[in-house]
Specification:
single chain, 466 residues, alpha/beta, FAD/NAD(P)-binding domain, Enolase-like, domain 1, 3 domains, five-stranded parallel beta sheet, 13 helices, binds flavin-adenine dinucleotide, binds nicotinamide-adenine-dinucleotide, disulfide bond, Lipoamide_DH, EC 1.8.1.4, nucleotide-binding
């Protein structure tokens, strides 16, 4: 039997970051990964989706210039070779996953390829595949076991994945573009990929159970995205449930009034959420305390069993790569003897729709629910010069702060390219900035960042450009 100080199950953003940091700190670390390192995020999630979104945007831009544009640019009829697009995307994925493999090697992490099966809280068996016979693999014992097995897409019971019913994984590697696609779920994946497919010329219909798109965000934030969907010609079926497929393979849906209809589409992308990956590797034998279907953790990512830790998607919401990475880095430091707790001032979230949405910290509604006496103010991109030059003056930046001492509690923005504002938002929250700090900071002109300063000034009652 091989021994290790730290044994990590899963080489996604949580697992690989934990491994690199642990090795840097002199901890003898083994990382087990069944597929390519990089996990969901690098292989079939964040990176490939952003690549496809970019390609779709470039194509859409050219298609808009086909006849005329206010910019005076006219282009011919563009075509997209989706096989080459996919190959370009795969190239980025390979560069990044290869980079992660090199970093792991350079820092001295032992990467074991295979499927991990938990024997007990201190022993794991590595087999060739989830279907392999127990007892046939390499056994590794450990002082610390870190669960970083991530998550998997949720299927509709009435319509399992297969054939024309696909998950984001297949949608991110199209061999050919369908003429039409139904997207079930108007959350992160449905909206990001639904919009990208529409921009690539596919007829897209979105079916959402709630009465509005992106229900996790407030309506002010989702409104510009809704307007953009309509402009793109995406059909929307809100407050609708999915009944399954009919004999012709068409999607059967039911609206809020109980009326049934059928959507004759070539492909159906199901994006109704992801669930922690907790089955198929003996986790249940540890009898850990659970939080719904996620492993319950405390503010140091410790599970209910001593020496067993969990990070990232397997530990539940928010299922975001940067949260998994931050937890992984922290666990490695705690194991090395440092005093750390996971109490971030904010975990920013970005939805890469057109326009983009970014949130960091509390919204006005969340501040109210928390019982905080807060003020909030918005600054619209229609009054921002840089936004106008980028043809993207829809949207706004909003700030939320305590009324008494002006401590900033949260930021939200919707608009073209606002994902890049997330750094400024989160830094101001972590550093305990007040409205006066941001209002008194010189922001470069012309930039979208000026809207941040102006929102803070507006909350103080003296915006200059509105
Ligand atoms: P994962 O990345 O899921 O990695 C877990 C790894 O464990 C996998 O590689 C798996 O093969 C391995 N594994 C599981 N069980 C075993 C076992 N028994 N033995 C061996 N190996 C095992 N997040 C963002 O922050 N920004 C985004 O823009 C974003 N876009 C996304 C787009 C899509 C389409 C999807 C699906 C997700 C997106 N996410 C995004 C979410 C992000 O991918 C996840 O939050 C992140 O990957 C979680 O990291 P993790 O390390 O917890 O797990
Ligand atoms: P989601 O939770 O973001 O959205 C799911 C949507 O499906 C919701 O709007 C929900 O109301 C709807 N829904 C649920 N059941 C339904 C049903 N039966 N019929 C119709 N609609 C239904 O989930 P997702 O889009 O699958 O993404 C999963 C997770 O992946 C996200 O929560 C997020 O953590 C992560 N992700 C993040 C990003 C990002 O950070 N930009 C991008 C993609 C994915």
């Amino acid at each position: 039997m091989q021994t290790s100080q730290l044994l990590i199950l899963g080489g996604g953003p949580g697992g690989y970051v934990a491994a690199i940091r642990a090795a840097q700190l002199g901890i003898q670390t083994v990382l087990v990964e069944n597929e390519n390192v990089g996990g969901t995020c690098l292989n079939v999630g964040c990176i490939p989706s952003k690549a496809l979104i970019h390609a779709a945007e470039e194509f859409h831009k050219l298609a808009r210039y086909d006849t005329e544009s206010p910019l005076g640019i006219q282009a011919g009829s563009p075509i997209v070779d989706i096989v080459r697009t996919t190959a370009w995307k795969d190239g980025i994925v390979e560069r990044l996953t290869g980079g992660v493999a090199s970093l792991l090697k350079k820092s001295g992490v032992q990467v074991v390829k295979g499927w991990a099966r938990i024997v007990d809280g201190k022993t794991v068996e590595i087999v060739s595949s989830p279907a392999a016979q127990p007892g046939s693999g390499l056994r590794i014992s450990c002082e610390h076991l870190l669960l970083a097995t991530g998550s998997e897409p949720v299927a509709l019971p009435s319509m399992p994945f297969g054939s024309q019913v696909i998950s984001s994984t297949q949608a991110l590697s199209p061999g050919a573009l369908p003429t039409s696609m139904a997207v079930v779920g108007a959350g992160y994946i449905g909206m990001e990929l639904g919009m990208a497919y529409r921009k690539l010329g596919v007829e897209v219909t979105i079916v959402e159970a709630q009465e509005r798109i992106l229900p996790a965000y407030d309506t002010e934030l989702s409104k510009p995205v809704l307007a953009s969907l309509k402009k793109l010609g995406v059909s929307l079926h809100l407050s609708c449930s999915v009944l399954g497929l009919d004999d012709a393979g068409h999607l059967r849906i039911k609206d809020a009034q109980g009326a049934e209809s059928t959507l004759a589409v070539e492909q159906i992308l199901v994006a109704i959420g992801r669930r922690p990956r907790i089955a198929g590797f003996g986790l249940e034998s540890l009898l850990l305390d659970m939080n719904g279907s996620a492993v319950r953790i405390d503010d140091q990512c410790r599970t209910s069993m001593r020496g067993v830790w969990a990070i990232g998607d397997v530990a539940g919401e928010p299922m975001l790569a940067h949260r998994a990475m931050a937890q992984g880095e922290m666990v490695a430091e705690i194991i090395s003897g440092k005093h750390r707790r996971f109490v971030p001032a904010s975990i920013p979230a970005v939805c890469f729709t057109d326009p983009e949405i970014v949130v960091s910290g509390l919204s006005p509604g969340e501040a109210e629910t928390a019982g905080v006496d807060a003020i909030s103010a918005s600054f619209p991109f229609s009054a921002n010069g840089r936004a106008m030059t980028l043809e993207s003056s829809d949207g706004f930046v909003r700030v939320v702060a305590r009324r008494d001492n002006h401590l900033i509690l949260g930021w939200q923005a919707v608009g073209g390219g606002v994902s890049e504002l997330s750094a400024a938002f989160s830094q101001s929250l972590e550093m305990g900035a007040r409205l006066e700090d941001v209002a008194g900071t010189i922001h470069a002109h012309p930039s979208l960042g000026e809207a941040i300063q102006e929102a803070a000034m507006r909350a103080l009652g003296h915006a200059l450009h509105i």
